[in-house]
Structure formats: C-alpha cells, structure tokens
DNA sequence: CTATTCAGGACATTTAGTATCCAGGATATG
DNA sequence: CATATCCTGGATACTAAATGTCCTGAATAG
C-alpha cells in the first residue's frame, strides 16, 4: 500500500483541527518532515476525490471539503491508492480445461469470490471509521493535541 | 498482492483432487499455462511453509502436506506474500511535535490502529476459509471438475 | 549410471512507488 | 499593474519490488 495513505490520514486529522483556514502543502509537509512536492501530489489526489478543497495564490492552501465525520478511511485509501483490490484475479481459469472464453471469471471463479469476500470485510471496516473518529480518539488520549497542532502550524515560518 | 497467490490457491485446489500422488511443477504449470520456473518458486515457498511436501527425483513432485480442510487461504497468502500487512506504519508521528523517540507508534498511533483493525478483519475472513471449502464449492458448481482435472493431469505428456 | 525432479542462487526484465523539477495559471497584496 | 505566493499537472529520474529465466547441485527411481 502507498505510503501516501498514511500521510493523507494524518494530514486530514490535522486539517480537522484547523477548520476554515487553508493550510499550504509546505506547512503540512513540515509538520511531519515529509517531502513537500510529493505530499502535494497526494493532496491533489484528495482534492480530485472531493475530500479536500484547494485554493490557489497567497493565503491559499488545502482544507477539508466536508465534515470529517463524513470522510471515511476508505475514502482516503481509494483516493490515494486507487479503487483496485489487492488481489487481482488474472482469470487463469481461462487457460484451463473446458474454459468459457467469454465468461468473466472474476465473477465466476470461486477463488476470486473468496478473496473478494475478504476484501469486502476489509473495506467495510475502513468505511465504518471516519477522520472524526480518529481525531476524537486522539483527543481522548492526549487532549492537548489539537491545540499543539494549531500553535505549531501558526509558528511555522511562511 | 503477488500474483503467485492466485496460482498457489488454484494449484492447491487441484492437488486436493489428486491425493497421494505427487504432481510435478511442470504439470501444475501446464494446467493453467503458467511459467514453470516461476511457479516452481511459489511451490517452494508453500513447501517451506509446510503447506506442501515435495519429493525429488523421477516420480517426484508436490502434494498437500495436510488435510485441505486444514489449509486456510490466509496460510497461502502469508506463505507467498509474506507476513507483512498492506499498510505499513512508518511512524511519521516521530517527526511531529512532542514525539517520544522511544515510543512504538505502530502500537500507539490511532491511524495505525484503525488500519490494523481493518487488516485483522481481512485476515479473519481469509483464515475462516479453507482450500477444502473452495474445492467443495467448485464441486457443487461443476461436479465434473475433479474428474476433469484428474484426467487432464493424467494425459499431460511427461 | 542416467534421466528426472526439486532446491535455490544469480541474474535480467518489467512495473510500481518514490521523489524532484519546472512551466503555467490563479489570486492576494501593494 | 506588478509581484510574490501557491496550486496544477506534466516530464523526468531514481529506487524497490514483482516477474521471469537460467544454471548448478542434490535427491532418487529405474
């Protein structure tokens, strides 16, 4: 899995604590010492997916496009890592005996179905957790985290 | 995910229909028109994992090391793809403010925990399904499959 | 002894992930 | 209007992993 998923989730949690004001890619990168240009690519992907909104120009930056309770971890994984499942059925049954060349073995093949059922369990679990859920748990574990994040972003030199 | 996982699962299902007699890597590869040498590598991994047993020499080959009801899909995924989870926590919190350099953020970080919970759901699902389960479903979908496989293997030129 | 087959290391090729850079467009500010 | 800031996206380079091949060595049946 793409490392950008981790960056995106932490960045979204941070953005949930800075509502209303755009944060630049440079600042988000500085927070965790990440490569700015590459993080920027992930933020662009989140923007294309409708998770963030972006503003160009001075005083520009990124902010959450909607309530963090409405941004699931699955949304982020799909935006960064793409919609493909980890197990890709290559339909090897088509090369086997008695194969139907026009059948879609990603649907018929029982190995494919079994792997898909596991993938669905995975996605169901991710879909059930939101950025707000994570943020809430962080707060109950260390209540000072949002304040710390706000002041750290405020103190970053432009 | 490694494509060898798919090959391994189909090969194990086939092997469950040819108990007692070893099947060569060449035959298993010919069944689905797979590259012999590369499939052989996957079969070696399954052997190291204790899923298959191998026999050298003429009349040698591979067979299941235990009852297919006792070989889970997770066993195969771990043997071929390794034990690592898809989401690797890079502990980026260590570069953040107020980080504890000696903390293990793969345990503490709530993003990491959330991703791990999804990964566990995935693995639970895979652990709950066996090669025998797949084979049984294949039989109830096409009862002639085991016989077809047996005769196809028998007819492959050595 | 010889042919067959697995074991595994060495290597080559291809693809995906990671990362940097730059030109172009948007926009706040003076 | 001029300029500095900042997002957008394409081009490119580098690295790591997946994929695939080849060869030597060891086991073993006939």
Q: What this model shows, in words?
A:
The structure is a homodimer of 158-residue chains. Chain A is built from 8 helices and 2 strands, in the order H-H-H-E-E-H-H-H-H-H. In chain A, helix 1 packs across helix 3, helix 1 packs across helix 7 and helix 2 crosses helix 3. The radius of gyration of chain A is 20 Å and the shape is elongated. The mean pLDDT of chain A is 96. In chain A, strand 1 and strand 2 form a beta hairpin. Chain A has a two-stranded antiparallel ribbon with strand order 1-2. Helices cover 55% and strands 5% of the residues of chain A. Chain A has 158 residues and is mainly alpha-helical. Chains A and B meet through helix 1, helix 6, helix 7 and helix 8 of A and helix 1, helix 6, helix 7 and helix 8 of B. Chain B binds a DNA duplex (30 and 30 nucleotides) through helix 3.
**β content of chain A, as a range?**
5-15%
> Structural class of the secondary structure composition of chain A?
mainly alpha
Sum up the overall morphology of chain A in one term: elongated
- Largest interface, and how many residues on either side? A-B, 46 and 46 residues
Order of helical and strand elements of chain A:
HHHEEHHHHH
What level of helicity do the residues of chain A show?
55-70%
Oligomeric state of shown chains: homodimer
Distance between the termini of chain A: 32 Å
Q: Main beta sheet of chain A: strand number and arrangement?
A: 2 strands, antiparallel
Mean pLDDT of chain A: 96
Count the helices of chain A. How many? 8
**How large is the radius of gyration of chain A?**
20 Å
Overall strand count of chain A = 2
The main sheet of chain A orders its strands as 1-2
Low-pLDDT stretches of chain A are: none
């Amino acid at each position: 899995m793409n490392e950008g998923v981790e960056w995106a989730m932490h960045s979204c949690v941070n953005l949930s604590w800075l509502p209303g004001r755009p944060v630049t890619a440079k600042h988000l990168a500085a927070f965790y010492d990440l490569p700015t240009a590459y993080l920027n690519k992930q933020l662009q992907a989140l923007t294309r997916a409708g998770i963030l909104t972006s503003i160009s120009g001075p005083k520009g930056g990124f902010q959450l496009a909607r309530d963090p309770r409405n941004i699931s971890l699955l949304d982020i994984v799909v935006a960064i890592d793409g919609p493909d499942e980890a197990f890709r059925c290559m339909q090897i049954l088509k090369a086997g005996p008695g194969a139907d060349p026009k059948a879609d073995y990603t649907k018929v093949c029982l190995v494919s179905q079994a792997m898909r059922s596991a993938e669905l369990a995975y996605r169901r679990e991710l879909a059930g957790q939101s950025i707000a859920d994570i943020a809430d748990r962080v707060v109950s574990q260390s209540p000072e985290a949002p304040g710390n994040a706000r002041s750290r972003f405020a103190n970053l030199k432009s």
